[in-house]
């Protein structure tokens, strides 16, 4: 257990023994100010109200009975019954000295099989900014769960099927090129290729008719059309994988489970729902009606499984995917990192999946929604001309801006162009990712280059610089940054930093359970701030003997924590900037 859990368990047990209420909860939380201790137990007030007792008197009785001398130096009752807890410096020192530097957070005691569905671009077009949030948020969650020892199965649910592909292969088929090289050249600009095909589809009735016919041929497995479709998909996947590599995303081609993967499984979904008498025919479409979902007029909302005249929908594919993930991959938890506009869709699909037995009652299906990336005008982020921003262009602009920033900060640097370019690549990509991850995923956020590339505030450059600055302490003094240093905290600034270092475990475990990367970002930002205060108030290299050793140990652990924490967010650190 982490420190917070340890305190919560022991205080809850004491409160239960004191009141005879076995479900008594200590409700341990972080204190909002050092004057109120390091942690607070806030459960006394609610329990006192339930029992009709004076909360402060109950708090005082509890404080007298607590046996926390091995962890806490002082327990005090404040206000109407808050229990303030002050952690012993000796306990902080002992715990820090016991940490495994290779991994500062212990593996999960009960690892699960977790399937995470994220990124999921549409292969008809190049990836754009609309794919950014789901990709980097999903990857941070995936990295964290994997780090904690869960069996993590990534699933990239590519959109590679449907009407638009009939349009694209028809356009491809009519172009005067047939060799592999020429096909690749034509598809080098997927966005342009898509626009050309869409324009023909919208303006040429014969082309549109042929495209619709070719969809039928494609879905029937016609070898010629399947070959053209496969060439288009291969080039699209190559585009995606190049972007994933540049963004430091851990998805590989082996993680791809596109819509077409489930094509042969869709009739069975229909058959199983029919066998369980869950299907209703409405206007020729086969639907599942759920009492939980109604229109404003009180009419039940349908989950359409097969549309009128035949043909399956996203709901059918998602049900087939849930069945595959729960029954064949044996998932205990399935996470869907998909934008908030799909909330109703997933609520309905999850309900049908549990009702039909595609997912057991114990398997958790979670939609991890996220908001929209907005421009400074408060509207969805676009190019100056109003077009969609390609993700490849966004990455390149971030690196270019970072290069100008790095050169401006180091006009007389002895770094060569290759080193500067490497730093710019790391900083530029990190700035884009961190600006997103540091915001609550449920909220929209404003995309602002100036803010995200700032060396002040909760930004990637600030944290990268904090890490590089700590590493420079050891480099300048020609000290081994990996040597064992015995920590013995004494000063208030040392205690505050030490406590924060111990709370890294809590931050990581919270991210794994609540899937909110911004909480880890906030932790790292606060850690860097506390280190700066410690460094200003507690001389490190000018100290001597055991004091210097202890402070070097705090520097070492802070750097390791920043490195591991940023690594979980998919951000690479730099030894110098």
Low-confidence stretches: none
Largest sheet: 4 strands, antiparallel
The strand order across the widest sheet is 1-2-4-3
Helical content class: 40-55%
Overall outline: globular
Query: CA-to-CA gap between the ends?
Result: 37 Å
Structural class: alpha/beta
Average of the residue pLDDT scores: 92
Query: What is the tally of helical segments?
Result: 21
Please indicate the percent range of residues in DSSP E strands (runs of 2 or more).
Answer: 5-15%
Radius of gyration: 28 Å
Number of strands: 13
Summarize this, please?
The protein is an alpha/beta fold and 577 residues long. The chain is built from 21 helices and 13 strands. The mean pLDDT is 92.
Structural features, described:
The protein has about 575 residues and is an alpha/beta fold. Among the domains are: about 80 residues, Arginyl tRNA synthetase N-terminal domain (Gyrase A, domain 2), CATH 3.30.1360.70; about 100 residues, no CATH class. Helices cover about 50% and strands about 10% of the residues. The chain has a four-stranded antiparallel sheet with strand order 1-2-4-3. Strands 6-5-10-11 form a four-stranded parallel sheet, with helices on both faces. It has a three-stranded antiparallel sheet with strand order 7-8-9, with helices on one face. The chain is globular, with a radius of gyration of 28 Å. The mean pLDDT is about 90.
Task: Kindly list the characteristics that best describe this protein.
alpha/beta; four-stranded antiparallel sheet; 21 helices
